[in-house]
């Protein structure tokens, strides 16, 4: 069924063109949309008209019309006034609402199919048969994007986004929960990554304009067939979660950019705790002072280059060497040695993952 908001917008547009008052009532006798409160006084007559065999009828100087969805009565349309012209306007208005019902039902069918496709709820044979029935190409390059918006907003971002980003009959916009919007994006250009970057940049700009300044976007890998869309969705979900842990400063994150982070994300917490005990003994990286943590971070940023790190920290090279020697004594790891540096880097990421999961649990 069409939302009352869409019905109201349609009636307002029809009134602006035809200059007549209109009212739509559902089969339960409740007003779905109206351009004039005066027409609501005809609710009893509308309820009686529901049981009438006629499809249209003039009642007390107003025209009544029945609107069907595949032989099922959905609405009663009341047009304020009588006469041939009013009758023709009513017929056109009823036809417009009838077409809206068909269009929204088709969109609902597609939306239902896409949701089940994303959640991997369809057999392979059903995917291809339903896609064919809904005129959805099965062989097309697609990528799944997830947009997570800050909680607490009462407006429907999904309905806001559909007219802007889902009006080309190739992309699908849906949602499986209240916080995330999912876009199944069809790709057309030869350089797919450039197309995705351009698209996500437009999304971020639009979200900023609409007041969603804390939103995040993640996306999976590009798939070639419709049956693989669920895989891209799972990758996008992982990218969203892992991105919050290891790339919290980024608004857009791709699954292909997660690196070792996606491996750490799948480790059980007891194994992580055991690994940290083996690396740091009874200590934790949180126990290091701010100076040591800054030194470590900058050293990794500069690919273990002592000279460049000391220059950016505005300290003497020997001071940096002293700090690294001190760290080696406390941890047994020399960050100037590639293997030790890798171990230390992974340990820091594991600690970050553990802290995130601890916060998430509570």
Describe this structure in words.
Helix content is 52%, strand content 16%. The chain contains 13 helices and eleven strands. Strands 6, 7, 8, 9, 10 and 11 form a six-stranded mixed β-sheet that branches. A hairpin with a 2-residue loop joins strand 3 and strand 4. Helix 10 packs across helix 11 and helix 11 crosses helix 12. The chain starts with a helix and ends with a helix. The relative contact order is 0.07.
**Euclidean distance between termini CA atoms:** 40 Å
Please tally the helical runs, counting DSSP H or I stretches of 4 or more residues: 13
Specify Rg, calculated over alpha carbons.
Answer: 30 Å
Low-confidence stretches: none
Strand content: 15-25%
The shape is elongated
Order of helices and strands: HEEHEEEHHEHEEHEEHEHHHHHH
What's the overall average pLDDT, rounded? 87
The computed structural class is alpha+beta
Helical fraction equals 40-55%
* Biggest sheet details: 6 strands, mixed
What is the number of E strands? 11
